[in-house]
Amino acid sequence: MLDTFTIETFRPRLGELFHLVVGDQRLPTKLTDVFPWGAGGGDERARVPFSLIFHTIPEAIVPQGTYSMENERMEPFQLFLVPLGPDERGMRYESVIT
């Protein structure tokens, strides 16, 4: 499924609640940023690389790894998440899709 995702898959989901599944826990997680990266233009890639930023509760510290993500408007999918550290909105995680 991940190979079919584009930045346009997630832009409409900005601000929506997702659940980060860790074992038997479902941590409430909000998609807070969606942005392209790289120079773009003239690239031979099938899609523009992009990043997703998620925020969850400050106590939700999970290690870098692949996790199941759930959203009521999407089929469950797997994402590789990297913890970025906390800010005023909670713990931040990034997923880069190339």
List key phrases describing it.
98 residues; mainly beta; 6-stranded antiparallel beta barrel; 1 helix; 4% helix; 55% strand
Give a written overview of the molecule.
Helices cover 4% and strands 55% of the residues. The protein has one helix and six strands. The protein has a six-stranded antiparallel beta barrel. A hairpin with a 2-residue loop joins strand 4 (65-71) and strand 5 (74-87). The protein starts with 6 loop residues before the first helix and ends with a strand. The mean pLDDT is 91.
Tell how many strands the DSSP assignment holds.
6
* Low-confidence runs: none
N-to-C CA distance: 14 Å
Q: Report the C-alpha radius of gyration, rounded.
A: 13 Å
From the helix content, strand content and strand pairing, which structural class follows?
mainly beta
Shape estimate: globular
What proportion of the residues is helical, as a percent range? Answer: under 10%
Oligomer type: single chain
Q: Indicate the mean pLDDT.
A: 91
- Portion in strands: over 45%
- Main sheet summary: 6 strands, antiparallel, barrel
Placed side by side, the strands forming the largest sheet appear as 1-2-3-6-5-4
What is shown here, in short?
The protein is mainly beta.
Blueprint of the fold:
Blueprint: H1 7-10, E1 17-22, E2 25-36, E3 50-56, E4 65-71, E5 74-87, E6 90-97
